[in-house]
Specification:
Residues 151-177 have a biased composition (Acidic residues). Residues 124-143 have a biased composition (Basic and acidic residues). This is Pentatricopeptide repeat-containing protein At5g41170, mitochondrial. The chain is an all-alpha fold. Among the domains are: 5-111, no CATH class; 202-271. α17 runs antiparallel to α18 (359-371), α37 (694-706) packs parallel to α39 (729-741) and α44 (813-825) packs across α45. The longest helix has 16 residues, at 794-809.
C-alpha cells in the first residue's frame, strides 16, 4: 500500500528516539495535523506512541511534567475521560478539531467548546491561539448537562435587538413562568444553594501576577507573539481567585469578556467554576446580555454545577438591556435545567416584573412562592412597595408595610424611604410627617441623618425648596449636622426657580456655620444668575470663588458662557472659550455646543462653522442633530453649497453624518431651484452608504413636480417603492398637489394605484377631487368621483359636496344635480341645504323638472325639507 506524504513523515519520526520525537512534536505541535488523517491512520499513530517499545526511562521527567494538562481547577467531568493518558491528553488538546477521530474515541480531556470570537473579539487576544472550534460538535455531556433546555431558550429571537420594556401577551400564559417554583426543595438549605463556591476573602487584585497580567492586557493593541506568550505563561500560574481578580480589574467589561474568551481557548488551561460565576456577576452590571447567555450555555455544556445565582445574574443582565420578557424566560430555562429556585432568584424575578410594570403578575408570583414554601424577606416586599409607588398606588404600599410585621418580616428604612420619596415627589409633606411618626412607633425606626438627607434631596430635586428647607431646619434642631451636599441641593432648587436672594441667603448661612460651599454650590449660583440674565452678578460670583480659594471648573464656565450667549454676547463667549488654557480650565463638548448654538442663533454662521472645526481639532464631535441645526441655518440663508462643504468636512474628520443631514441640504438645493445639485447629492448618498428615506424622496419629488419634470418624479416614486419604503401622508399630499396642479390626472391615478398597494391611504382620492376643484379642473374631478363613492363614507360626502359647490359656483347646477344623484344611488345622503340651492338654481335656469326630482328624493327617504322644518 502506497503511503501518503504525511505517513512517510510519521515513519521518519519513528526512526528517531522517542525522546526526540515527542520533543519535536511538542515544540512544533505536529499533532495538530492529525485531523487531516483518517480515523485508521490516526488510531495507528496513537497506538504507536502509546505502545512504543522504548522504555519510559528514555523520556525525561521534565517532558512529562510539561506535558501534563494544566488547569486552574480539577477536571470538570472525569467521566468523559476514563483512564486518560496525561501526555497524549495535553499534546492532542490544542489545535484538534472536533471532527478528530481521537476525540470521538474519548482518549483526551473534554475539548473546549467555545469558538473563536463567540464570547469576545478574537482580534483582541491570542491571534496565534488555537483554531476555531465548532460549538455544535461537542463531546457527549454527562447526565447533568441539558442541551435541549438551553437550545430551546437560544431560539427565542433575543438577538434581534428587541426592547420589550412593556411585556406583551395576554395573561393566559403568564403563569408558565411560575412552573420553576414547583421543583423547590423545602428541605434544602437555601443559603448553601445560593453559593456555588466559596470565595476567598483575600484581595488578590494587588498580587504581582494579577498586576502583570493586567499590564499585558493593557498592551493588547500592540501585541506581538512574545507578549502573548508571556501572558499565556502567566495564565497557567494563576489561581482561580486571581483570574477572577483580573476580570474585576478591567476598566471595560467588554475587555473582560474578550480576556475570558481568549483564556478559555488556551492550551492546558480550563476556567474554574468560580471564574464563570465571576464573569456572570460582572456582566450582570452591564447590558451585555448575549455574552451572559453564552457563558451560561458554556456552563451547561461543560457540566459545571449551576446554582440559582448564575440564572439570577443572567436575568439581571437581560433586565438592564430592556429585554424583560427574555429575563422571565430564564425561569423556564432554569426549570428545564432541573435547578431548584431559591429566595434570591425569586426576588430577581419579582424585581424584573416590577420593572416591566407587571405588578399584578409579581403579586401572583409572590403568592405562588409562598405556597411552595419560599418565605419572602424584606427585599421581596421592598420590590413590591416600589412597584406600588411607581403605579401611584401609595395606599397599597402603605398597607403592605402595615402587613409585613404580621407575616414575620419587619420593614426596614428602605421600605419607608421608598414611600417617602414618592410622597415628596407629589409634595405631600403632611403625609410624609405622618409616615415618619409611624416609622418610629410601628417599626421602632428612629429618623436619623440619612432620613433627613433623603427628604432634603428628594424635595429639592423635584423643585420643592421651601419644604426641603423646613426639614433642614428640623434636622438641625434635632442635632443632626447637614453637610454641604444638602445645602447645595436647596441652593440649586432656589436657583432653578429664579429665587436668587434666597439662594444667596443659604450660601451666607453656610459661611456662618463654617460649612463652606464647594464648586458645586457656586456653579449652581452662577447658573442661576445666568438664567435670569444677570451676567454681572455671575461674574462677581466667579471672583468670589477665587477669593475663597474655590477654583471654577468646566461646569461653572459653561454656565457663564451659556448666559453670555442668551443675552446675545456669543462672540464674547467665544473669546472666553479661546482663553480657556490661560484660565486653566478645559472645555468639554457641552461647552463648545453652547457657544456654537449661540453663534447660530445670532446668525454668525461662519463663526459657528469655524468653532465646529476647532471643536473637531480638539477631539470633540458634535452630534448629527447639532450639525443639522447649523446646516439648516445655512440652507435657510440660501447657502446650500456652503452647507454641503461643511457637512463633507465634518464627515472627513470623523463626524457622524446621517440621512437627515443629507436631506436638509437636498431641500436647500431644491429651495434654490438647483435640482441638478440636489439629484447629484441624492446619488452621493448611496456612495457614502446613507440610503435616502421617504422624506428625502418626497422633497425631491416635490421639487421635480414644481418644475414640471413629472417623468423623473414618477420614476423616483417607483424607485422608492422598489426599495421598500412606505409612503407617508405627506408623500401622498405632495404627489397629489403637484400632479393636480398641472392636470396630470391619468399619470397620478396610475401612480396612486402603485402607492396604495404598498401603504393604504383611505382619503387619497378624496384629496384628488378636492385639489382638482381648487385648481378649477372640475371635469377631471368628476371622472374620479367613481373611485370616491366606492366606500360611501362621511369623508366621501364632504368631497362630493365640494364638487357640487364648485359646479354651482361656476353656474353649472346641472352637473351638481348629477353628483347628487350619484350620491343617492350609493345611498349617501347629500346636504339638504346645498341641494336646495342647486334646486333653486335649476329652476331659475329652466330645469324645473330636475330641481323638483332632486327634492323629491329627500321626501322618498323620509327626510324633511328645509321649508317644513
Amino acid at each position: 500500500m502506497r503511503l501518503t506524504v504525511l505517513e512517510d513523515y510519521f515513519f521518519l519520526l519513528s526512526s528517531i528516539s522517542m525522546h526526540k520525537t515527542l520533543e519535536m512534536c511538542f515544540k512544533s505541535r505536529i499533532f495538530t495535523l492529525s485531523h487531516h488523517v483518517s480515523s485508521t491512520k490516526a488510531a495507528f499513530w496513537e497506538s504507536y506512541v502509546i505502545y512504543s517499545p522504548i522504555s519510559d526511562s528514555l523520556a525525561p521527567k521534565s517532558l512529562y511534567k510539561n506535558a501534563i494538562f494544566f488547569s486552574s481547577a480539577p477536571s470538570l467531568n472525569p467521566d468523559l475521560n476514563p483512564n486518560p493518558s496525561p501526555l497524549l491528553g495535553s499534546l492532542f488538546e490544542e489545535g484538534r478539531d472536533f471532527d478528530d477521530p481521537l476525540a470521538r474515541d474519548g482518549h483526551t480531556h473534554a475539548a473546549k467548546e467555545v469558538p473563536m470570537g463567540s464570547l469576545g473579539d478574537p482580534g483582541e487576544f491570542g491571534k496565534e491561539s488555537s483554531p476555531a472550534r465548532d460549538p455544535n460538535s461537542e463531546l457527549k455531556p454527562d447526565s447533568g448537562c441539558r442541551f435541549g433546555a438551553f437550545d430551546d431558550f437560544d431560539g427565542e429571537g433575543d438577538e434581534d435587538g428587541e426592547s420589550d420594556d412593556q411585556m406583551e401577551g395576554g395573561d393566559g400564559n403568564d403563569d408558565d413562568d411560575f412552573r420553576v417554583l414547583d421543583i423547590f426543595d423545602g428541605n434544602a438549605d437555601l443559603k448553601e444553594e445560593s453559593k456555588g463556591f466559596e470565595q476567598e476573602e483575600k484581595d488578590e487584585s494587588r498580587h504581582p501576577l494579577v498586576r502583570e497580567v493586567c499590564r499585558l492586557i493593557g498592551l493588547r493593541h500592540s501585541w506581538n507573539p512574545k507578549l502573548e506568550g508571556e501572558l499565556r505563561h502567566l495564565l497557567r500560574s494563576l489561581k482561580p481567585s486571581q483570574v477572577s481578580a483580573v476580570l474585576h480589574s478591567q476598566p471595560d467589561q467588554r475587555i473582560a469578556v474578550s480576556f475570558f474568551s481568549w483564556a478559555d481557548r488556551q492550551w492546558r488551561y480550563r476556567h474554574a467554576p468560580e471564574v464563570y460565576y465571576t464573569m456572570l456577576e460582572i456582566l450582570s452590571k452591564t447590558k451585555l446580555c448575549q455574552a451572559s447567555r453564552r457563558i451560561l450555555r458554556l456552563m451547561i455544556r461543560r457540566g459545571i454545577s449551576r446554582q440559582p445565582e448564575a440564572f439570577a445574574y443572567l436575568m439581571v443582565s437581560y433586565s438592564r438591556a430592556g429585554k424583560l420578557r427574555s429575563a422571565m424566560r430564564v425561569l423556564n430555562l432554569m426549570q428545564k435545567d432541573g435547578c431548584g429556585p431559591d429566595l434570591s432568584i425569586c426576588n430577581t424575578a419579582i424585581h424584573v416584573l416590577v420593572m416591566a410594570n407587571r405588578l399584578e403578575k409579581a403579586l401572583r408570583f409572590l403568592d405562588r412562592m409562598q405556597r411552595v414554601g419560599i418565605t419572602p424577606n424584606v427585599i421581596t416586599y421592598n420590590c413590591l412597595i416600589k412597584g406600588f409607588c411607581d403605579a401611584h398606588r401609595v395606599e397599597d404600599a402603605l398597607k403592605m408595610i402595615q402587613e409585613m410585621p404580621l407575616k414575620g418580616c419587619l420593614p426596614d428604612k428602605i421600605s419607608y424611604y421608598t414611600v417617602i420619596s414618592f410622597l415628596c415627589k407629589e409634595k405631600m409633606v403632611g403625609e410624609v410627617r405622618e409616615l415618619i411618626k409611624k416609622m418610629k412607633t410601628d417599626a421602632n425606626l428612629l429618623p436619623d441623618q440619612v432620613t433627613y438627607n433623603t427628604l432634603i434631596h428628594v424635595l429639592a430635586k423635584h423643585g420643592h425648596a421651601d419644604e426641603a428647607l423646613e426639614f433642614l431646619r428640623e434636622s438641625e434642631e434635632k442635632g443632626f449636622r447637614v453637610d454641604k451636599v444638602g445645602f447645595s441641593a436647596i441652593v440649586h432648587s432656589f436657583c432653578c426657580d429664579g429665587r436668587m436672594e434666597e439662594a444667596k441667603g443659604i450660601v451666607n448661612e453656610m459661611f456662618r456655620k463654617e460649612c463652606f460651599p464647594d464648586v458645586v454650590t457656586y456653579s449652581a449660583v452662577v447658573n442661576g444668575f445666568c438664567r435670569i440674565g444677570k451676567i454681572d452678578q455671575a461674574r462677581m460670583m466667579l471672583k468670589h470663588m477665587f477669593k475663597h480659594g474655590c477654583k471654577p471648573n468646566t461646569v461653572t464656565y459653561t454656565a457663564l458662557l451659556n448666559g453670555l450667549c442668551k443675552i446675545g454676547n456669543s462672540l464674547e463667549a467665544w473669546e472666553m472659550l479661546n482663553k480657556s488654557e490661560e484660565e486653566w480650565w478645559t472645555p468639554n463638548s457641552t461647552t463648545y455646543s453652547v457657544v456654537m448654538h449661540g453663534l447660530r442663533r445670532e446668525g454668525k454662521l461662519k463663526e459657528a462653522c469655524d468653532l465646529v472645526m476647532q471643536m473637531l481639532h480638539n477631539g470633540f464631535f458634535p452630534t448629527p442633530v447639532e450639525i443639522n441645526l447649523l446646516i439648516h441655518a445655512l440652507c435657510r440663508e440660501g447657502k446650500a453649497g456652503e452647507a454641503k462643504k461643511f457637512m463633507e468636512e465634518c464627515q472627513r474628520k470623523g463626524c457622524t453624518v446621517n440621512v437627515v443631514n443629507f436631506t436638509t441640504i437636498i431641500h436647500g438645493f431644491c429651495r434654490e431651484d438647483d435640482l441638478e445639485s440636489a439629484l447629484s447629492l441624492l446619488d452621493d448618498m448611496y456612495l457614502s452608504n446613507r440610503h435616502p428615506d421617504v422624506v428625502t424622496y418626497t422633497v425631491v419629488v416635490d421639487a421635480l413636480g414644481r418644475k414640471g419634470r413629472f417623468e423623473e418624479a414618477t420614476e423616483l416614486i417607483k424607485k422608492m417603492l422598489h426599495r421598500g419604503l412606505v409612503p407617508t401622508p405627506v408623500t401622498y399630499r405632495t404627489v397629489i398637489h403637484r400632479y393636480c396642479a398641472k392636470g396630470r390626472v391619468e399619470e397620478l391615478l396610475k401612480l396612486l394605484e402603485k402607492m396604495l398597494v404598498r401603504q393604504e391611504f383611505r382619503t387619497a382620492y378624496n384629496q384628488v377631487i378636492e385639489k382638482l376643484c381648487g385648481f378649477d379642473r372640475l371635469d377631471e374631478a368628476y371622472k374620479v368621483l367613481g373611485k370616491v363613492l366606492r366606500t360611501a363614507s362621511n369623508a366621501d360626502a364632504v368631497s362630493c359636496h365640494i364638487l357640487m359647490d364648485s359646479y354651482l359656483t361656476k353656474g353649472l347646477p346641472l352637473q351638481s344635480y348629477k353628483v347628487a344623484c350619484r350620491m343617492f344611488h350609493r345611498n349617501l345622503i347629500p346636504d339638504v341645504h346645498l341641494c336646495q340651492k342647486v334646486s333653486n338654481k335649476l329652476v331659475s335656469l329652466g330645469h324645473s323638472d330636475e330641481g323638483g326630482r332632486l327634492m323629491i328624493k329627500f321626501v322618498e327617504r323620509g327626510l324633511m325639507l328645509p321649508q317644513h322644518q
